[in-house]
Amino acid sequence: IHQYGQPDHSEVTTCAYCGVGCAFKAEMQGDKVVRMVPYKGGKANEGHSCVKGRFAYGYATHKDRITKPMIREKITDPWREVSWEEAINHAASEFKRIQATYGRDSVGGITSSRCTNEEAYLVQKLVRAAFGNNNVDTCARVCHSPTGYGLMSTLGTSAGTQDFKSVEESDVILVIGANPTDGHPVFGSRMKKRLREGARLIVADPRKIDLVKSPHIRADHHLPLKPGSNVAFINAFAHVIVTEGLIAEDYVRERCDLAEFESWARFIAEERNSPEAAQAITGVDPQEIRAAARLYATGGKAAIYYGLGVTEHSQGSTMVMGMANIAMATGNIGMVGAGVNPLRGQNNVQGSCDMGSFPHELPGYRHVSDDATRESFEAIWGAKLDNAPGLRITNMLDEAVGGSFKGMYIQGEDIAQSDPDTHHVTSGLKAMECIVIQDLFLNETAKYAHVFLPGASFLEKDGTFTNAERRISRVRKVMAPMGGYGDWEGTVLLANALGYKMEYTHPSEIMDEIAALTPSFAGVSYDKLEELGSIQWPCNEKAPLGTPMMHVDRFVRGKGRFMITEYVPTDERTTGKFPLILTTGRILSQYNVGAQTRRTENSRWHEEDVLEIHPFDAEMRGIVDGDLVALESRSGDIALKAKVTERMQPGIVYTTFHHAKTGANVITTDYSDWATNCPEYKVTAVQVRRTNRP
Ligand code: SF4
């Protein structure tokens, strides 16, 4: 205001960064955003915000924005600016040529968790109806796909159980593999408020995150797990609950499958799952695990909040099941203050999954092999749909390297920077004949692209995002798309050029189609969103105003299902050559691969990624704070500055992945979750040494 004077109008919209989904008023002068003001009416944030949503919107008008479509024949050619018509026709004719030459399954698409629900829905529709296969995947593959698999298997739905407000009534909070004060700051503040009021806290994390000890807050138990030991830990935690008689027997008898509970309880009670036996794997004092499990089981309403430290492991899905097991065993699902709650990373990762962005699921998490579901889509889409699951991102890249996968439409996703084992990703990208990128900037993946379509920021389009508590909120257009079209319009153009008719004049019509085809969205419309402000799905005849809390009287799947969670060590092992374990995460001021936040004033708080290392490991290597170090794994090596800190435990190092020049994913492995292929970003065996190489 000081700089620009008073705004002349404003519009309420939703933050495009993390899965908290804060509502903001975008205050405008003409078509210029003057400032973003946290909106008091936003149910996810109640008038609060963090430095990203409040200040880091300048990327939307950054000089690096690409505003003209571009094409090139070969990736070594310079880009040539063309009209939208020429770019779209070129992309369509290339995809048609590839399919005619290499077969129907030689192309696919990737939806974005940064784009709107309506846009993700259209990309998967294009792949299924226009390409005629199920080769569609989403960046959720590399973050929370195990959440979907684990919660669906145990509870019957691929989403968190509670709304954010629920934490205000928790008596015990168990945070596993999440750092809410950095990753989800507005929710982190809400959690801290409850902790200051007296809720008890257990943190299971290799690092001493801020919640472990900060002003007025001290965790009752910090369980510094070795990366890769989550399942051994949750089994040990459950062992205490089972063997010390802490089961909520009436709850389990009434609400869960008893035969499965009994076989789970027998498995968990085995001595090999005791905290003492697990200590060699977890590295955690067994008495601390025992005390924490007793607190969780007997301390009142207990809520679990977890993040990518749970999912990005070779046993990510198993760990999600393990958390659901202990919540059911102690009766901690279906009431306010309890639950199992993923802290979703990206603004619309929940939504992109809900919208059928997976190769095996149509919108609403219904399997492509289900004839009745497919027929309902075929009737409205006017296309015959494939009943076999398609390829995941990693499989698309594998097939590309093998020569049978040749074309990809990627909306709002930078797989060359965000996906693991960069060398493998770029080999796959280089092997393709047509890659179409729709994005704001020439990102790392665009280096391998043949067509570039200008993307639109969240300020330039209408739509909806769905946050981590299943809350669907409106995104409102406050300025004209700099490239001429919203992302959804680009998809419509491409589908039509491919010969598949898409006719929408506004994203509200896309939402109407989603509602007509998806039972959990049946009651959602833009009119209702206007009236209620936001809606948590399921919203349908049974719940016309939406559903803040799931599984209240019964689990969505009927009886809650206990799953056997056998611990299987990761194949990534430390050796004499690679004796340390690297784990990765985020910091408050930056966001993911930094494509947006690095182009804002936020960069002043974090100019580069650094390597956190314990003083013992640093001293052993002659490293002092600020030294340039080489970080080497079996996949590659990078150089970055060292930060010597007791936040780390000996044997474990940590870095962020916000800067392309660091390229942390050059060194991560290609191991992944057994069920979903979510990459094991959190466990990489490395060596660290001083270097002079910049
Ligand atoms: Fe945006 Fe998340 Fe910050 Fe809220 S907490 S302002 S949604 S980045």
Structural description of this entry:
This protein folds into three domains: 70-143 and 348-536, Rossmann fold (3-Layer(aba) Sandwich); 145-342, Dimethylsulfoxide Reductase, domain 2 (3-Layer(aba) Sandwich); 580-690, Beta Barrel (Barwin-like endoglucanases), CATH 2.40.40.20. The protein is 31% helix and 18% strand. It has 22 helices and 28 strands. A seven-stranded mixed sheet has the order 5-4-19-18-17-6-7, covered by helices on one side. It is an alpha/beta fold. It is globular. The structure holds iron/sulfur cluster (SF4). Iron/sulfur cluster is lined by residues 15, 17-18, 20-22, 45, 49-50, 52-53, 184-186. One of its GO terms (biological process) is respiratory electron transport chain. This is NAD-dependent formate dehydrogenase, molybdenum containing, alpha subunit.
Summarize the structure.
The chain is of the alpha/beta class and about 700 residues long. It is built from 22 helices and 28 strands.
How is the topology of this model organized?
Blueprint: E1 9-14, E2 23-29, E3 32-38, H1 51-55, E4 70-71, E5 80-81, H2 84-102, E6 107-111, H3 117-131, E7 136-138, H4 145-154, E8 172-176, H5 180-183, H6 185-196, E9 200-204, E10 213-214, E11 217-218, E12 221-223, H7 230-243, H8 249-255, H9 258-269, H10 275-282, H11 286-298, E13 302-306, H12 308-311, H13 316-329, E14 339-342, H14 349-354, E15 361-362, E16 366-367, H15 371-381, H16 393-402, E17 407-411, H17 415-418, H18 422-430, E18 434-439, E19 451-454, E20 463-466, E21 471-475, H19 487-497, H20 507-517, H21 526-532, E22 534-536, E23 580-585, E24 610-613, H22 615-620, E25 628-633, E26 637-644, E27 652-656, E28 684-690
Parallel strand pairs: 6-7, 6-17, 8-9, 8-13, 9-12, 13-14, 17-18, 18-19, 23-27, 24-26
Antiparallel strand pairs: 1-2, 2-3, 4-5, 4-19, 10-11, 15-16, 20-21, 21-22, 23-28, 25-26, 25-28
Helix pairs in contact: 2-19, 3-19, 3-20, 4-13, 7-10, 7-11, 7-13, 10-11, 16-18
